[in-house]
Design goal:
Helices cover about 20% and strands about 30% of the residues. By secondary structure, the protein is an alpha/beta fold. An 8-stranded mixed β-sheet has the order 9-10-12-11-14-15-18-19, sandwiched between helices. Strands 2, 3, 5, 6, 7 and 8 form a 6-stranded antiparallel β-sheet that branches. Strands 13-16-17 form a 3-stranded mixed β-sheet.
Amino acid sequence: MDEPAVISATGLQPGERVAVRAELTDGAGVQWTSQADFIADGQGAVDVSKQAPKDGSYKEVSAMGLIWSMLPRDKKIAGYSGMRGGAPQTIQFALMRNTQQVSSATLQQIVVADGIQRIPVRDNDVRGLLFLPNTKERRPAVVVLGGSEGGMPLARASWLADRGYVALALAYFRLQDLPQKLEGIPLEYFQQALSWLVQRPEVLPDQIAVMGSSRGGELALQLGSMFPVIHAVVAYVPANVRYPACCGNTDVPYAWTWKGMPLAFARPRPSDPLEMSRAEIEVEKTHGPILMISAEDDHVWNSAQMADEVVARLKRNHFAYGFENLKYPHAGHSAGRPEIVPMWLGDTRQPVSGQEMELGGSPKGDAESTLDAIPKVLAFLRQNLPGIPAQQ
């Protein structure tokens, strides 16, 4: 799901204008389609990774433009839905000459690679799904955290397992007997999950990272600042402060507790600088490098500015490890997602509160962030968790 493919056609007339059409049916049964016109070169060939279309659903040179620019036939849906149960996503391509199909090809995007084990986790209070790569060797491990949607972040965990990491898709609310809302979550829960993970025989205990998105990005930075067992942090569209409980009516106003006490939080756009200062995450206490992916057109919160605040704090405190903020000017709250899929978004609702959300960004901007961030995130993990063979 994270690899660009080469889409090309040969045997055409030099200078001939043809169309390439793409279609898929996603995990929710929604049909998506795109089309772009190209001019064959002097050898009678079209290569979409090297040529910009003359007309169609996207305008620039983009190897995966026919995928990320797809639109749904039903505009009432919120966005692309991944395939169920780890099934591959099939995409059909057709070469059109004067509205007649003259050739076709099929691409399968693998969601979960062969041989990966998925083990349900129900150990004391810890709930999640453990993904194990197809190897008998010990591997680095990544704890993957979702955001305000709750449940288990399966897509990112399976992605990391495909790349050779042990990945724990860790739930912390809205699953089974866990809290149903993001409120008053004890951070001891994550300490327990980390202790459980490092004791697994498949895991290199000194190579542990944490990855989260949105509220999960906030949480990843918070956990990295607290637990020395974490040696690398990847935070997608994170906050630099702890935000309140979420979403809708909650029994308590705070999201996190430690040793039975609520941690200070900042309301959106607080007028009191002291409130913001007390809520700021002490990222300089992290025992490893930090990589952030942020978006300048984020309409959920200003992730680009907040990630810049993290960088500023690290610099002020002479942080001993590396850090970087990958900042994307035209991406929204979906920035950097590690899968090449249709990027169009319709009316989106917060899955807990049901309120409408505007994520920001454009399909092109989100796609550019994805295509740029995927190899950089993998390189960051490979550099700082070096227990993966070079060919994987």
